[in-house]
Amino acid sequence: MSILLASAPLRLARSILSAAAFALLLAPPIADAQQVAPAALAAPQKPASLKPAAESWLYEGSDIPRDAGWLFGELPNGLRYAVRSNGVPPGQVSIRVRMDVGSLFETEKERGFAHLLEHLTFRGSEHIPDGEAKRIWQRFGVTFGSDSNAQTTPSQTVYQLDLPSVTAASLDESMKLLAGMVREPRISDAAVTAERGVVMSELRESDGPQKRIADATTAHLFAGQLLSNRSPIGTIESLTAARANAVAAFHNRWYRPDRAVVVIVGDGDPLEFARLIEKYYGDWESNGPNPHQPDFGKPDPSAPVARIIVEPNQPLSLTLATVRPWIKRVDTVENTRRLYLEFLAVALVNRRLENRARSGGSYLVASVEQEYMNRSADITMAQIVPLSDWQAALADVRGVIADAIKTPPSQADIDREANEIEAFLQKELENARNEPGARLADDLVRAVDIHEVVTSPQAQVDMFKAIRASATPEVMLNISRAIFTGPATRLVLTTPTPIEGGEGALLAALARPATIKDERLAAIKADFSQLPPLGAPGTIASSTMIAGLRAERIEFANGVTALVSNNPVEPGKVRVNVRFGSGNRSVAADAPNLLWTGDYALVASGIGPWGQNAIDQLTNGRQIQLNFAVDDDAFELSAESKPADLADQLKLIAGKLAFPRWDAAPVDRLRIGYLTGYDLNDATPNAVLDRNLRGWLAGGDRRWAPPSREEIEALTPAAFKAFWAPRLASGPIEVQIFGDLSAVDYKQILASTLGALPPRSPLAPAGGEKVRFAKHVTEPVLAYHRGEKGQAAAMTAWPTSGGLGAPRDQQGLQVLASIFNDRLFDRLRAEQGASYGPVVDSHWPTAFESGGYLLVGSLLAPKDIERFYTIAREIAADLVANPVTADELARNAGPIREQVARASTGNVYWMHMLEGATRDPRIAAAALSIQDNIMGVTPADIQRLAKQYLEPARQWSLAILPKGMTLADASAMDRPSAVSAGGR
Question: Taking the complete model, does pTM exceed 0.90, yes or no?
Answer without folding.
Answer: yes
